[in-house]
């Protein structure tokens, strides 16, 4: 049976779960559904996801005279484990995995992530991010493995093998240059020549394509003023042509919207540039209608539609989607492995290997398990803060309630050191001299994407990935100086140090920050990045059960970068170079 135009365009469409029913999946021949950040079924446990996906799958497979049985693809942002779901194993974000410097570990992380994605009845993760970060002001810095393109390329191969080796689809993103925008502005403009674009930002995708990645997501950013979503040279000529990518290209969230004032024209621009599947969370019915008209008018050649659909179907066959039973009947959907001890052991290993020791005056670390330890700081007992963005909610969560399983850093310390005490009040520490050492755990609040940028507020672009679009997109702050962003941290460190006890500072952050004052006031200083659900891994290293092994994946700044330059990737204003990390014996 030949596919109709309606069926073809339906396969090219990806609405968000809150805006499409199973009945509409069948009626409009929808090819894929996604969950946006924080968009989860009630109760948000694996069984709830399986039941939801069962309904979508059954609708897509209900063949009749007007509908072909083509299984639907369901996609999620499982970017550091399947962290959308309660009880998941949450891994360190990519910057921490980059610090670990262990490609074999990364492949195992990919396999565990894939198993927990499959356990929720899901087939596709929008990962890995292959950005090469060039400025720590970027709110997505923590999604980058390294500022070094060769490191990211090497990791790209291993994470793709890990994810797709367990039967889900990986999605290399965001094509291309998203980590190189001027001043680190999310969805901004990457103003570099083609030689640098290829050498720095294209290189990781070449490795991913060689490893067999089956989907690629376009970037919401621009290259020299031209939107990547409408860039035929980058998508059609370079990625699909020169690089030989045979999978399909997906747009990002509402990536069609800013291309043109007329929605039909915008959709045509994206498809003609080489976008095969359109992520249109709410306006999916409209884009189907508009794209049909663009084909009938000859603006979008039917050959381009046929190529897009062939790519989508080829990927569905390649990942075994047509052979799989409904999600509830799949072996991996029984939830037994979800958040298991074995999976958490891999995450804890990743935490241990990701920690970077920046200072260790007098050999303070490792700590003695029998020491009298005062643990302080707002991040000491906060699993949500440890996990960062893309955890349960798009912007992440705070506190412990939503992160089921795992341990906070305080819980890890308490399990090792019976004489440790946590200072939970915000008042003065009047008796710090009764302790041998203070451990102060501080850091950034969770954030994701542009809301993590360091810059001045700016107007929201059309279709911005926000549940409620304000007049301006508020960034995390306008400085990388941690003392200005979170002055309470330095107060706590100094309060303990002024009473004569040595202080170990553990920094939870998605990027390197300007911490000159905090470093000076601390006897030891640890960059813990965003370690995820297994805070016990931090304690493993603080007490010497495992050594410090992490190395900086990006340069650590001594001052706030200025202007539109790509701060932190050269030698100016660098406190610690990439690759730095003390390793006490």
Low-confidence sequence ranges? 462-471
Q: Specify the helix fraction band.
A: 25-40%
* CATH classification, class level of the domain at 341-576: Alpha Beta
Question: What separation lies between the terminal Cα atoms?
Answer: 69 Å
Second rung of CATH, namely the architecture of the domain at 341-576:
3-Layer(aba) Sandwich
The 3D shape can be described as globular
Strand order of the largest sheet: 12-19-18-15-13-14
CATH topology call of the domain at 341-576: Rossmann fold
CATH superfamily of the domain at 341-576: Glycoside hydrolase family 3 C-terminal domain
Q: Biggest β-sheet, characterized?
A: 6 strands, mixed
The value of Rg in angstroms is: 24 Å
Count of β-strands: 21
Protein structure class: alpha/beta
What amount of the residues lies in strands?
Answer: 5-15%
Rounded average pLDDT: 94
Structure described in brief:
The chain is α/β, with parallel strands linked by helices. It contains 18 helices and 21 strands. Helix content is 33%, strand content 12%.
Question: Which secondary structure elements does this structure contain, and how are they paired or packed?
Answer:
Layout: H1 5-11, E1 13-14, H2 22-27, E2 32-34, H3 46-60, E3 73-76, H4 94-100, H5 103-118, E4 124-125, H6 149-164, E5 171-175, E6 189-190, H7 194-210, E7 215-218, E8 222-223, E9 226-227, H8 232-242, E10 248-250, H9 263-273, E11 278-279, H10 284-296, H11 302-318, H12 341-354, E12 356-360, E13 373-376, H13 383-387, H14 409-416, E14 421-422, E15 437-443, E16 458-459, E17 472-473, H15 482-485, H16 487-497, E18 503-508, H17 516-521, E19 524-529, H18 536-542, E20 556-557, E21 574-576
Parallel strand pairs: 1-11, 2-3, 3-4, 5-7, 6-8, 7-10, 13-14, 13-15, 15-18, 18-19
Antiparallel strand pairs: 8-9, 12-19, 16-17, 20-21
Helix pairs in contact: 4-12, 5-6, 5-12, 6-7, 9-10, 12-18, 14-18
